[in-house]
Amino acid sequence: MKIIKVILQSAVLIATVMPPAFAQQAAPNNDPPTINQRKENQQDRIANGVQSGQLTAGETRNLETKEAALNKEEHGMRAADDGHLTAGDRATLNHQQNKLSRQIYNKKHNGRVQ
Questions:
Q1: What is the per-residue pLDDT across 54-81, written as a single tens digit (0 to 9) for each?
Q2: If you count Cβ atoms within 10 Å of the first and of the last residue's Cβ in the chain, which end, N or C, has fewer?
Q3: How many CB atoms lie under 10 A from the CB of residue 85?
Q4: 39: phi then psi, degrees, rounded to nearest 5
Q5: What's the half-sphere exposure (Cβ side, CA atoms, 13 Å) at 95?
Q6: What pLDDT digit, counting tens, does each position of 3-52 carry?
Q7: pTM of the predicted protein model
Q8: Terminal-to-terminal C-alpha distance of the chain
Q9: What is the H or E stretch that residue 18 is in?
Q10: How far apart are CA 94 and CA 103, in angstroms?
Q11: Each residue's pLDDT tens digit, 79-97
């Protein structure tokens, strides 16, 4: 009788604890990354290329210069629209980030090492 009572109490405890535990799991985020997230990701990719030796000093300087120019352009776009980006600005920046992303990939995989 005592074992049945312990089993029932355990079952009640599990039934009350488990649903909130499953509810706390976040759904996967399928939203595209924001402009700032992409900038961070690309900076991380450049840093990883430097650390692994896949990027030479000249390649790194070239990529960092392009990244800085893109950041300056974004800053100018935001300044022109009271700190916001228009849909056209976002499309332009996204296109330029795609181009820079391909350049990072190509420079990391061109066979030159530091």
A1: 999 999 999 999 999 999 999 999 999 9
A2: N
A3: 16
A4: -60, -45
A5: 7
A6: 666 565 665 656 666 665 555 565 566 777 889 999 999 999 999 999 99
A7: 0.70
A8: 73
A9: helix 2-23
A10: 14
A11: 999 999 999 999 999 999 9
